[in-house]
Each structure stands twice: as structure tokens, then as C-alpha cells.
């Protein structure tokens, strides 16, 4: 495992905090003092403090220095009021427990949920940007905003998607409070209780829960380990079943990681067009590519208006960002009605 020069002093501070030698609110030695004491460069010391801040052990106060922000006896970490758990579905509750990361040690990397690690999140950039916005907007940030989201944000998202070859009208974009909310509202715009929905198999269990919660019937469509969503199987299903919607993740499907080829995406669109089936496209992982070019979303090939796309900032910025985007051209009016119910 790679080691860093700053660990020579950060390990000491961490140990002193764990053993309660340093208490919450206590000021730490300055950058200059640590630089001299440990014979480090200013940048190494600064990186060390950044590391401690990201771990939640230290905080920075403007013009004052660095202070301890956590101690083992801190009530915010130790004393919790446990709410009674109402189990609607024992299996769903079990899945939630398995994918939750309650009180996990900060030094443990969690792979049980799709979220970037603390060291990957651009914390300093986010904090600086938030401070700039607060200074500029002030009390205006505390007012109600349009149900479909801020126009400037929708325009910026539209520009970003256009750079990847996916043209979206800002007026047809809607900002939601979560990917599952976007999915739930999208389903509500095109289906009725008892309708049939085609979903990937395997897929994220939360999608199955959302579908079941709306009283829908599920037909599982296999995900091939090389080509992804099995469109041929969907064709056979549509011959004898009235499928009202298809839900899938074409790019970096969870849990297989498969990316559908452009030809496969176009083939799926052709089938959807024949049977007039709305496609609900989950694009939350689309930006997590390692090649030179972002994989195309199905929406970029759609000229019929059958594709509803939703994406998220939680996978590439941080899971604490509750903002999601959704684009629903043909189904815009019923989606807006549904969004109003959620605020």
C-alpha cells in the first residue's frame, strides 16, 4: 500500500484523538510548527491536514488554524435515539441492512453500495463552491424553488449532456430529490396498478421494491454477460404480454457492469417503437467511464419520445447530493403532475 510523507504526523494526531489525549475543540500545532518538527514541506503538511479533515477528525477555521472536531466520547457519534423499525417487507429490510454502512470505521473502504470513497470526493472544491454560492445568493437560498428545479441548473445539465452527444431541452428537464423518486414518478406517468413492467435480471433490489410498491407485475429480462440486456427475449415477451414499460441501465449495469453497444441500444429502441413501450433509462453510472469517450445513452438515438432518462450526481460527486435529473419529453405533463406531489 502506498505511504505518504505526512503520515509521520497524521498518525500521531489520530492516535492522540483516539486515546482522548486531544479533545474536541482543541487547537492543533500550526503548519509551520509541524513543518519544522517533522522536517516536511508545507505542501506535505497541508495534505496531511486535508487527509485528517476528510476523515472527519479535524476542522479548519479561517485565520485560526486547525482544531479537533471529533473525540470518541462525542455525543454526536455515540449517543443515538433509535427509532422503532417498521418492517413492511422482511426481505427488503434485510437488503437495506446488508447495504447500509452504519457506524463503519472511517478507515474501511465500503463496496456494498455504489458511492465514491471519501478520498475521491472533491471536498475542498465542493465546500469552496458552496461558500461562493451562499455569499452570492444569501437568504434567497432559503426560499421555495420551482418544482422542476432551477432554470440555470437545468441549462447547465443540458450543456453537459450535449457535450456527450445527447441533446436535451432544459424546459423538459426536471430536478428530483433522488433517483428512486425519478423512477417512481416516471412509472406513475405511464402505468397503472396491475400493469406489466420489464426489468433487468439481475438488477438493483431497490428498483424491484419501487416497482412492487406501485402494485405492478414484473417480467425479468436476462442480462447477458457480454451483450447486456437481452432484446430478443424482450421481443418474445411482448408477443404474449402487454408490457407497459422497460426499466434498464444500459451503461455499466449494476451489478454486472455491462455496457450495451450502440447497435444493441438502437435495436432495443426499434422493439420499443414497434410495441410503443416507454423505456425508462437509468443513466446514473454513465459518467464513470475509463475510456476516451463516454458511452452513448439510449436517449441520444431516440426520435420517438419513448425514452425517459434519469441520472444523478451521487456516483461521481458524492452520495450526500440529493439532486437528480430526469428528462421526459413525451410524458412531461404527467411527470410534472407527479413531481408536484413530492414538492
TrEMBL record:
Keywords: DNA-binding, Pyridoxal phosphate, Transcription, Transcription regulation. It comes from the Bacteria. SUPFAM superfamilies: PLP-dependent transferases, Winged helix' DNA-binding domain. SMART domains: HTH_GNTR. Pfam families: Aminotran_1_2, GntR. GO terms for molecular function: DNA binding; DNA-binding transcription factor activity; pyridoxal phosphate binding. Residues 3-71 form the HTH gntR-type domain. In the C-terminal section; belongs to the class-I pyridoxal-phosphate-dependent aminotransferase family. This is Uncharacterized HTH-type transcriptional regulator yjiR. It comes from Chryseobacterium carnipullorum. The lineage of its organism: Bacteria, Pseudomonadati, Bacteroidota, Flavobacteriia, Flavobacteriales. The gene is yjiR_1.
